[in-house]
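Task: complex structure prediction.
Instruction: return structure tokens for all chains below.
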Amino acid sequence: MRIALAQINPTIGALSENLEKVKTCYRRGISEGVDLVVFTELALSGYPPKDLLLYEGFIDRERELITTELLPLTANSRPPILIGASHRENGRLYNAALVLENGMIKSVHKKTLLPNYDVFDEERYFTRADKLDIASLAGQPAAVAICEDIWNDRDFFSEPLYDTDPLENLFAQGARMLINLSASPYHLGKHALREKLLSFLARKYQAGIIYLNQVGGNDELVFDGSSLVYNSRGELIYRAASYKEELFYVETDDLFRLADIKQSPGQDDIAEVFNTLCLGVKDYVTKTGFSRVVLGLSGGIDSAVVAALAREALGPENVLGILMPSPYSSGHSIRDAVDLAENLGILYRKVPIEGPFKAYLSLLNQEEETHMDLAEENLQARIRGNILMHISNREHYMVLATGNKSELAVGYCTLYGDMSGGLAVIADLPKMMVYELADYLNQMKGREVIPRNTINKPPSAELRLDQKDEDSLPPYNILDPILHFYIEDNLSPTTIISKGFEPSTVKGVIRMVDRAEFKRRQAAPGLRITTRAFGIGRRMPIARSYEY
Amino acid sequence: MRIALAQINPTIGALSENLEKVKTCYRRGISEGVDLVVFTELALSGYPPKDLLLYEGFIDRERELITTELLPLTANSRPPILIGASHRENGRLYNAALVLENGMIKSVHKKTLLPNYDVFDEERYFTRADKLDIASLAGQPAAVAICEDIWNDRDFFSEPLYDTDPLENLFAQGARMLINLSASPYHLGKHALREKLLSFLARKYQAGIIYLNQVGGNDELVFDGSSLVYNSRGELIYRAASYKEELFYVETDDLFRLADIKQSPGQDDIAEVFNTLCLGVKDYVTKTGFSRVVLGLSGGIDSAVVAALAREALGPENVLGILMPSPYSSGHSIRDAVDLAENLGILYRKVPIEGPFKAYLSLLNQEEETHMDLAEENLQARIRGNILMHISNREHYMVLATGNKSELAVGYCTLYGDMSGGLAVIADLPKMMVYELADYLNQMKGREVIPRNTINKPPSAELRLDQKDEDSLPPYNILDPILHFYIEDNLSPTTIISKGFEPSTVKGVIRMVDRAEFKRRQAAPGLRITTRAFGIGRRMPIARSYEY
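Output:
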């Protein structure tokens, strides 16, 4: 049996547009003489559709399109379709896989394990099915499972999340191959984990496995594609493209043969991060109806890296840098920012903020003299935010926020100031990783794209004279690991201290993190990179007490 | 048996502080000679603790305090305690009620129905228990259930959310009375629904019911207290205070006698809304460590109502109004704002925005002339936001945002401008309800607190000459019902149109709502009033397609 697998990039809620992609892939599959065409989890709505699922009209429309547009394609013994879709039964909604065959819905396979942690809210929408039954695909018995359904093996995971493992039942029913329809978002380390698990399952059940993943950026989440095929010996026989759409083909015979098929190469972590961010920027900007972006260029590392990413994602003609020097900007900042813009070949403008700053000072201090307090530091950041938003409003650019995860964590950023923007590109990148990415960018291009001086100078917000990040924060090589343990691993202060950090540093950092919750609640969506990003995956109270 | 019931206002995460409240209530109960003291759901952590539950140290600390501080209180045959707390068992976490008796945890009652819709995320943290067993409380058999556990009666609800009803099992085991530990947030209509359900259940099972609810504001949610006691005939025999703490007492004999006990009076809707918002403001401001608030006074109805609410919540000495006229402000706006401030007895300052506005125009237009475009309208709102944040940063006031639900819905508001603030007080009040509240405030005070002119003039943002809301939006008596059907009832455009609205109006409104999602994602937390507020209870994608 020859199967076509469609790794598509759907737009959330764009039922008709996504349907066109499905139909195009189906037609191409037919022209290639396949026996089955497979699509990802919730392929027509895109994943995650979130509360669109609560709109009755939305689910009805999805089913209507399946009935009126997809079912007829499969009539007259044309190849069946296996596709992820919502499914209502006895007043309950399921996340399901439908087999469309000969003009009818031949079988429905309902997801049994519903992720409801981290960024996932599936219990909010769907009912868990009790078990999964084997499917007959083009006459052959196969296990069909949806995303999380394969992630609970009790031999692989020391602490499985769920009480049951639907694969046990599926393979007990005699399945010899498994097709998994996924929408699995990227985070660091996920590729390796996926490949390890799939290889393990293939060996355990002596079954070929086809793992089909969604691709594309949807708000905070980037789905990396990288669909995988394993033979029944647990050998990788195909790895689809990462970060782009692909229609690929598998012969079921190959699932039970020795590996001999070529695969796309895997990538190292920092390359993955780079590609994730590029796709995240591109899809967020274009799927919200923008084509170009504007950002402030301070001469610092964060805005330099974001500008370089945006240039890769959108092309140099769609990136506008704004230099907004103040009386506290050092001479090298302007030069570094200009160097960057010229290295990238992007347009830039210089808009000094002194005029509005002085006007505010006259108004708020009764004279133009500065008080040099936190309020005035924030004011400078807010004037810059206003200028960027003004350009956005007048010229239809999306503003990119350039803050990194370390500063967002400790609140070393100004609400409505440098936090302004439609998308916070590197909001889930710790500062040390921003440097790593800068080095990677320069290496990749084989030249100095991010100016050497930007990489080498000590980080500074330049909101007062001779200000340095280290005046207010621990050095980043101390700060970042503490933040990692607290935010990504949920460790208590005691445990973090036991790893060898200064108790007062740990407690101070945690206090800063907790107290900055109100800022993060109003932050722009940030692209998720680590195992725990701020935003939908971390839900913290604001009005709370601090016991540390 | 005499039972003390503690309707307390915990601060989220303040384990030690909440413990002190628990101990104080227990001691007062003992001095009143009770046989049992009862506390609300998750009483020590406060509800909802959200992702604090994921910090291992947090749950361990809660249990440690129960073991070392509460259990010893109950030793030597002193009265037992029934209290809501997290409970870990076989690697799973449960939302439980613990019976602490004679220095030991005598029984654990685990919640079986976990709400995971609207603002609730309990499946994210807790495992569902299979069933609830009867408790022995001071020697008497009783049904103990936690919040949602009582909300699935198949005779009361036409479409029960869950497959099982734990009450059936509890009463089959011979319970004659039910104690429900709740943390049930307010929304319009909830009081009536609660009272109807409880009376129904009491009659159905011929059982006395004690319903104990948390009180207090926690971020978006306001818990109204209003704990209730019903006799086994379904008659209300006690209604505890709304919107404040109360320790009250119930004789179990009374649960099976004719009603003769006095109750606090119920309130009508708009009084409830008023009290909810006052408590929400007070608790959010104080629990985040602030004591005073600042807000812009435009002379319009929204800021007037928010100022009046803040004055009620915090006292006139803690409310500062800022008048920020622009060249487009009408003369009456200033006068109306001054009248309001004087009626309320709050302080106010005048900070005209013309200086910074002209400085921005020179910078961005190359001359001081205005382009009169949307960018400049937003700029004025952002200058005002900057001024308020400056006062906040310098003088430690919390900024209150004053936008209403109607404008937040359609995006008739400026991100980083009038949307700035720590709390969006009336963000879940449709414009028509803001007027209703203004009338209520004036009636309640028996004089013109909100100036008559503020109520009577047509709403305007005053960001350009002679601007009126109705230039851009349908009249609010058309807009508000459409928004209600779309946002609170999730109805499709087709269904809304079928109710008699202009198709083009409905589609236009829905398009505005969908396109403003990016603004709402960065909005300040808003106090929840309706059955569906923006924020944590409505989770929408931003980068999506619009099919209407």
